[in-house]
Amino acid sequence: MSVLVFIETEDGKIKKSSREAISYGAALGDVTALALGTVSADELATAGQNGALKVLHVADERLNAGLIQPYAEAIAAAANETGADVVVTAKSSLADAVVGRVSMKLGASLVSNVVSLPDTSNGFQVKRSIYTGKAFANVSMTTDKKVLAIKKNAVEIKEDGGSASVEAFSVSLDDSLFGAKITSTEKAEGDVLLPEADIVVSGGRGLKGPENWGIIEDLAGTLGAATGCSKPVSDMDWRPHHEHVGQTGVKVSPTLYVAVGISGAIQHLAGVNSSKYIVVINKDEEAPFFKAADYGIVGDAFDVLPKLNEALKAAQ
Questions:
Q1: In which residue ranges of the chain is pLDDT below 70?
Q2: DSSP category for residue 33
């Protein structure tokens, strides 16, 4: 099976979610990856570690901005050039906008939020997450070409491959595809950015005030984690809004999500339920968040966090 995987990059590096998509594609067949915009050949070659045999690179600076229509045009052109049976992307805000257009250009069926490899014993069936992760649906794809967007953290990253060859790929991108232009970008600052963090430590109203956030930051510093917060916390200006985690804030999908003093409203859960492991620390043993947690600690954050942080430092 021929597979084309679209790679997203951030600050010149392949995103973790795209490495998951490459690993998924490698389990299906021979993977050619596609990268758009400015990124080094050395970085792209590392896609081979995850199973890509070759990386096609469209080094057009106009693609650095991540615009939807030219991205869809380039991905569809690469799929046609390589004769891909399946196009795979990681699910993301950009990919969500792009893959629908790609499927239309290819005459392909599309399934997003895919959580496992397809069952090909009787056709081509994929399992997808629905209702913000509370249920699953099995979908039969009957078209010759297929487009799959893989849910973050649903796939283990393959890391036993080699180095992929990197080749320039030329595609005609008419100026009309660049009708929308990003004129400026404001990015949150910090050692670890929340959307791509592998570990997130979040606090809620149980911290009682912004003056107590030091224990969250201390634990995050020890773990190399990003910090987040619940919506009430950002609404009260205890923390900046770009740290608001949840359905109406930043959706995260870290390997480890630590929720401190957060009750677990459904809107918050919807933004974190892609986390691989969830640890909840709350003195209210009836807090709803415990039902979604892999591990829970019933206790006061002001007692638990300093001791936990001290133990983690001692273990390092």
A1: 188-191
A2: E
